[in-house]
Amino acid sequence: MNIADIKKTATEKMAKSVETLKNDLAKVRTGRAHVGILDHLRVDYYGSPMPINQVANVTLSDARTISIQPFEKKMIQAVEKAIRDSDLGVNPAVTGDVIRVPTPMLTEERRKELTKIVKHEGENAKVAVRNIRRDALQHLKDMEDVGEDEEKRAAGDVQKMTDKSIADIDKLVADKEKDLMAV
To answer: Which residues does the UniProt record annotate as the domain Ribosome recycling factor (predicted)?
Structure first.
């Protein structure tokens, strides 16, 4: 493994950590409805678990309501049960062949709880990035055919990548906190 490979691997892993944080933060519910909160839910579709968006049409009917229209009528109860049994804290209502999921307003206390969760997720992502940096620096030290100047230059590059990733994480967390605290 050469210096370029180490830097490339570290860059890819750091980008994955930031992307994972983005996905985790998308699951944290804000006061507005968005279809992304249902992405992690699975529905029993003829014996195999399927994401809701693969068995139904999921749309926003207004700022606070998600509408779900299953492709097959017999899937209505399965989709409703999956939403009701989830940890989202929402109460779906069936109207004909459409399931409506109203998103209740968040209380101030719940907003603060969710902000703590967001900060915790951000810290976990920062720890992951720092661990990637540590591993990359260790690989650089373990290389035998590299001069001290090259190693220091590469270590500086790895630190710059780390700083950029941590700045991205801080921005994602700050944006989500701002979104959560907006009434």
So the answer is: 21-181
